[in-house]
Specification:
By secondary structure, this protein is α/β, with parallel strands linked by helices. The protein has 14 helices and five strands. It folds into three domains: 105 residues, Glutaredoxin, CATH 3.40.30.10; 67 residues, Alpha Horseshoe (Serine Threonine Protein Phosphatase 5, Tetratricopeptide repeat), CATH 1.25.40; 119 residues, no CATH class. Helix content is 61%, strand content 8%. Strands 1-3-2-4-5 form a five-stranded mixed beta sheet, with helices on both faces. About 6% of the residues have low confidence.
Length: 318
């Protein structure tokens, strides 16, 4: 349990809750029910093994903080997640009641294990150890099948490293959802491009052969789309989108809007991942201080490119 004052409130409650939920206990020395609740909260903090942080605020000594939260009676407990209050309760509660409250909001042990494995995988990918990263992501998905972030990273890395069959199997569940998650639909489109490149005879065509066929008939959308798929399979994203735009501008609905679907998928694959809670504002610290660096610059460049092609798509569709 951490004693909170105005001086350490931002660091120990706001900033800390960006990576670990913080249960704030508003209490007073004269409050009988507070003395009953505190041992229960301390026991649960130990039982939950770091899944949440317990913070204690004396309302008489910290009236400004109590006023910020609108505390009218004690004990009052507020759960902070990602720098924001998400739920709370008033009055002394039994251990079972508090457990029920916590279990509604806290990640399970399996989810925490999966998140740790996924974070290790990210580091391994940055180091270029693809096999080890794949193993970590496989363990993350096995530990917590509902972790879509880990599943997405795993499928994406499988596709990039040639694990087509396993990637296809892992995509089945999210693709059955309604609505279909856009990022998994994007992976499916990319996977289809990879499979096309492996099996279609046109994968052996030189670029000049595509250009000659298209110059002969600018509405040869099948050849244009084959070229776009091969470019996407090779990771030549902007070249692929440029070819897809040529189809969209001439026939928006061709082949059940196949060109638009692949274009949107590429935009999704190029979009930088959303920041984790502890980095909720890209390029800024928890206190709002701007942090400059290569990563922020790279994200700005990617965002500019995506915005540019979104505008091109909008113009082609209108």
């Amino acid at each position: 349990m951490i004693d909170i004052t105005l001086e350490n409130f931002e660091a120990e409650v706001i900033a800390a809750s960006m990576h670990t939920p913080v249960l704030v206990d508003f209490w007073a020395t004269w409050c009988g029910p507070c003395k009953t609740l505190v041992p229960t909260l301390e026991k649960l903090e130990a039982d939950y093994g770091g899944r949440f942080i317990l913070a204690k605020i004396d309302v008489d000594a910290n009236q400004q903080i109590a006023a910020m939260f609108g505390v009218r009676s004690v004990p009052t407990c507020v759960l902070m997640v990602g720098g924001q209050p998400v739920d709370g309760f008033m009055g002394a509660q039994s251990e079972g009641q508090v457990r029920q409250f916590l279990d509604k909001h806290l990640p399970s042990e399996e989810a925490l294990h999966a998140e740790a494995e996924a974070q290790e995988a990210q580091q391994l990918m940055q180091e270029g150890d693809t096999d080890a990263a794949l193993q970590k992501l496989a363990e993350a998905v096995a530990a917590d099948p509902g972790n879509d972030d880990a599943r997405f990273d795993y499928v994406r890395l499988l596709i990039a490293s040639g694990g087509i069959e396993e990637a296809t199997a892992l995509l089945q569940e999210p693709l059955r959802r309604i609505p279909q998650p856009l990022r998994f639909a994007a992976l499916s489109e990319w996977l289809q491009c990879i499979v096309f490149a492996q099996h279609d005879p046109r994968a052996q065509w030189p670029l000049a052969q595509f250009e000659a066929a298209i110059a002969h008939n600018k509405r040869d959308f099948d050849t244009r789309f084959a070229k776009a798929q091969l470019l996407a399979a090779a990771g030549q994203w902007t070249d692929s989108m440029d070819e897809l735009l040529e189809i969209i501008m001439r026939d928006k609905s061709w082949n059940e809007q196949a060109a638009r679907k692949l274009f949107v998928a590429i935009l999704e694959l190029l979009t930088p991942p959303k920041p984790k809670k502890q980095d909720a504002v890209p390029g800024k610290s928890a206190g709002g201080i701007e942090l400059l660096g290569k990563n922020a610059a790279a994200q700005d460049a990617a965002t500019a490119l995506i915005d540019s092609y979104r505008r091109k798509l909008s113009m082609a569709l209108n």
